[in-house]
Design a protein that fits this description.
It is built from ten helices and 25 strands. By secondary structure, it is of the alpha+beta class. It has three domains: 77 residues, Clp1, DNA binding domain (Jelly Rolls, Sandwich); 201 residues, Rossmann fold (3-Layer(aba) Sandwich); 125 residues, Beta Barrel (Elongation Factor Tu (Ef-tu), domain 3). Strands 13-12-11-14-10-15-16 form a seven-stranded mixed sheet, with helices on both faces. A seven-stranded mixed sheet has the order 19-24-23-22-25-20-21. Strands 5-4-7-2-9 form a five-stranded antiparallel sheet. The protein is globular and about 70 Å long. The two termini are 27 Å apart.
Length: 492
């Protein structure tokens, strides 16, 4: 496939990167002519011509040197070769993780750092390396609600990586509608928890609850097939030291034993003081920020979100889907939406709630205020082991019951479908149960379930109460009667 009048050749020296930013509505055809090269840890094959569509930011790196050629429908917004890379550091980190794995069970890695520091690139690269060098399969976890990884944005996801990650996509992998059945990739259905909001600070109680529920399902997935379960890698939203209690919760939930701090040495120092570790076999490592990291504009992130939704319903170029229209009635479903809170008030409530939990557990963390006072061997800085406790979640703060949704509530909205076979639908629709009780029951149910799929509201008639939904496959009825109204909107 030729997109331009001539091919441009690029020579990349060893341990260098070719960094590219493509413009919107463009196409680039890329081929490896000689040598070895990779994109985010996935090796390029000389027998394949790779097609990159629309606006993307990526880097082709090489350890031994290579030659590439490309054609483009529009000139790249930016393309250059850089020798300022962290390839050696990431390779050394991978080897250290391999040695860490040999000393017992596979490591559980948490990656934290500021915005646009390269956390997701590092997670993807480490997973790709683990897949190539280990007999066990890595498991990627995404708890950054802004990213459409294995699902649309606003979700928390986890999936075992069976095959090389697709370099042509902008996410960890394709969605559950485009990955299975393509003849190219082994079927891998992710665990998906519906948060429904773009920013995790909008409902910290729901966010923390879903992290706990997701980690429990990850444990079940690992224990179900321990022989092929490898490293667990958790990618996070931008976090700083003020989020240390949330980081503590993630560490405890996923039983993390290796914490990677990207691009922020002060964060590493502060976390060493504040985090309470349940094991002596816990390591923290600082990873430098790659000079290739660029700030992603809000418009770029919005475009990625819209493209991920379109991919879910219409597929990708090599695995296209023909979505179906489903006609239903509003009264046949239960609608709830995540409870959006003011960020500052939610944060204060979250901190106060954790303070109550700590008091209940008779736990007081030993904190050191100044960097120069920190001595890991000192008795004064050693912190007690945090006891394992089960938190009582405030389910009434997680969702709102939408009893009579209107066109203004539903039009162009992406709805998450939740399994409802264990729910007494009649009772939920009756007036015999108070709305508060219904809400708590539904909140417990929704947080404990993985999302079955999504539908898009392409039509809603307030007069007749009829819905027109777009779904990726033909069905006579939706697989669940509980529909969660997410913040995600899609316009065809």
């Amino acid at each position: 496939m030729d997109f331009g009048p001539s091919r441009t050749t690029v020579e990349i020296p060893p341990f260098n990167e070719w960094r590219v930013e493509t413009p919107k509505s463009s196409s680039m055809s890329l081929k490896l002519e000689s040598g070895n090269a990779e994109i985010f840890g996935t090796e390029l094959s000389p027998n394949i011509t790779y097609i990159f569509k629309d606006s993307l930011k990526f880097a082709v790196s090489t350890f031994q040197g290579c030659t590439l050629s490309y054609t483009a429908s529009s000139p790249p917004d930016s393309e250059y070769i850089s020798e300022e890379t962290i390839l050696k550091q990431v390779l050394n980190l991978h080897l250290a993780i391999e040695n860490f794995s040999q000393n017992g069970k596979a490591p559980r890695i948490l990656i934290v750092g500021p915005k646009d520091a390269g956390k997701t690139t590092l997670a993807r690269t480490l997973a790709s390396y683990a897949l190539k060098t280990s007999e066990k399969l890595p498991l990627l976890v995404n708890i950054d609600t802004r990213l459409p990884h294995f699902a649309i944005s606003s979700q928390l996801t986890a999936a075992k990586v069976y095959d090389l990650l697709d370099v042509e996509t902008f996410t960890f992998g394709e969605s559950s509608t485009t990955g299975p059945g393509t003849g190219i990739y082994r079927s891998q259905i992710p665990i998906v928890k519906n948060f429904g909001l773009e920013n995790f600070t909008e409902n910290l109680e729901l966010y923390k609850c879903l992290i706990s529920e997701l980690s429990a399902e990850v444990d079940l997935k690992v224990s179900a097939s321990p022989s092929d379960s490898g490293t667990v890698i958790v990618d996070t939203p931008p976090l700083n030291v003020s989020d240390w209690k949330l980081i503590q919760h993630i560490v405890d939930s996923f039983q993390v034993n290796l914490l990677l701090v990207v691009g922020n040495e002060r964060l590493l120092v502060d976390l060493r003081k504040k985090l309470t570790l349940s094991s002596d076999n816990f390591k923290m490592i600082k990873i430098p920020r790659s000079s290739g990291c660029v700030d992603k504009e809000p418009k770029y992130e919005r475009d990625l979100q819209q493209r991920s939704i379109k991919q879910y319903f219409y597929g990708v170029e090599r695995a296209q889907l023909n979505p179906y229209t489903f006609h239903g009635s509003i009264k046949d479903f239960i609608f709830i939406r995540p409870n959006e809170q003011e960020n500052e008030m939610a944060f204060l409530d979250f901190m106060a709630g954790d303070a109550e939990d700590d008091a209940d557990d008779n736990y007081t963390p030993a904190l050191v205020e100044n960097d120069e006072d920190y001595d890991p061997s000192s008795e004064a800085t050693k912190k007690p082991v945090r006891p394992a406790t089960k938190r009582s979640w405030k389910y009434h703060k997680m969702f709102k019951l939408v009893k009579e949704p209107k066109e203004t509530d539903l039009m162009n909205v992406v709805l998450a479908i939740i399994d409802s076979k264990d729910v007494d639908f009649g009772k939920m629709l009756s007036n015999k149960i108070a709305d508060d009780e219904k809400l708590i029951y539904l909140s417990k149910h929704v947080t404990s379930k993985s999302v079955l799929g999504y539908c898009y509201v392409s039509g809603c008639d307030d007069g007749t109460g009829k819905l027109k939904l777009l779904i990726p496959s033909p069905v006579t009825s939706l697989p669940g009667q509980i529909l969660v109204i997410t913040q995600m909107r899609y316009h065809e």
